[in-house]
Specification:
single chain, 320 residues, alpha+beta, Beta-Lactamase, Heat Shock Protein 90, five-stranded antiparallel β-sheet, 10 helices, elongated
């Protein structure tokens, strides 16, 4: 009798350990009876779907997960593939996606597994944006170069006309070279560790370089802009100087490119109460609509693809 009781206690202990493991799972787990009613739910699934385990037990899962794709998936009895649905509470500014899978077990029961795939979906969107932007940026200069080469091969042009064509070809070649250099820089940054604080750069020198580049860019674009660069404080910032300059210059050059003639671009540097550097760029350009702000730091994301024809660039944002 003691042996039987000990075995029963051991079995109950293993079952308790198993349930604890399921409760702690990073994936959501819901047990459904043969009629699709919720018998048990772990904390992850409750968070995914906004469920209250005490309140929602014995409720039909389709009544609580009001998504037509899931309802069709549940009713199809074909569970070979996952279904991806917006998570409850997902919005356009803060989208969340869940991947759901159903596994039959027992006598008509179902195991519902949920997984947050928001990051995976965002990575796929970034990949598509990257391919679209880089393909466009490469195709445009290649088309121009192809046309010029064909013209030079078939027409006997005057010397000055040939020189003008060759100059334009050189510009398009430089455009592609810049794109390749940006891609190589991005690849290097992705594979390198975070910079330490062993190298320090004066903020004033960074801002002075930004001002010089901004004024040169405005002149090359033929824009009369009110460019304001108040004196920088006597601070130094830790990090690799070339990468800091690249990040700062990208912010300033974007402001110059997108601000209409006669507009204002103001650049300021200061220190926060926590001792961090705050570098701000304010302009009177078109700005960014609120729905795009959550994706502001995503690489390869461009708010308006048509702008690339005027401003160029692959459309990535440098990490802040």
């Amino acid at each position: 009798m003691l042996v039987r009781e000990r075995r029963l206690q051991e079995a109950e202990g293993r079952l308790a350990d198993f349930l604890d493991a399921i409760r702690a799972s990073p994936n959501g787990v819901i047990l459904l009876d043969a009629h699709g009613r919720i018998e048990w739910v772990n904390d992850t699934a409750a968070a995914h779907f906004g469920l209250d385990p005490a309140r929602d037990l014995q409720q039909h899962v389709v009544h609580l997960l009001r998504d037509p794709d899931f309802a069709a998936f549940h009713g199809s009895r074909n569970y070979a593939q996952d279904v991806i649905i917006p998570a409850p509470g997902s919005t356009a500014s803060r989208p969340r996606k869940l991947s759901l899978r159903l596994h039959p077990y027992g006598e008509g029961r179902l195991l519902l597994l949920s997984r947050d795939v928001t990051a995976v979906e965002q990575a796929e969107i970034m990949r598509r944006d990257f391919v679209a932007n880089v393909s466009h940026e490469i195709r445009t200069p290649l088309t121009v170069l192809s046309g010029f080469v064909e013209t030079l091969r078939t027409l006997d042009l005057p010397k000055d006309e040939r020189g003008r064509y060759l100059g334009l070809m050189g510009q398009q070649t430089q455009r592609m070279q810049t794109l390749v250099n940006d891609l190589l820089t991005l690849s290097r940054l992705e594979g390198s560790p975070l910079p330490g604080a062993g190298e320090w750069t004066a903020v004033a020198s960074l801002q002075a370089q930004c001002e010089q580049e901004a004024r040169a860019l405005a002149t090359s674009l033929g824009k009369a802009l009110d460019l304001r660069f108040p004196p920088a404080p006597p601070l130094a910032v830790g990090g690799i100087a070339s990468e800091l300059q690249s990040a700062f210059s990208n912010l300033v050059s974007n402001a110059v490119r997108y601000t209409p003639a006669g507009g204002l671009v103001e650049v300021q540097a200061g220190q926060t109460p926590e001792g961090r550097l705050e570098f701000t760029v304010r302009d009177t350009g078109p700005g960014i609509a609120a729905e795009h702000l959550p994706r502001l730091t995503e690489r390869f994301y461009r708010v308006d693809r048509s702008r690339s024809r005027e401003t160029g660039g692959p459309g990535w944002a440098w990490p802040s």
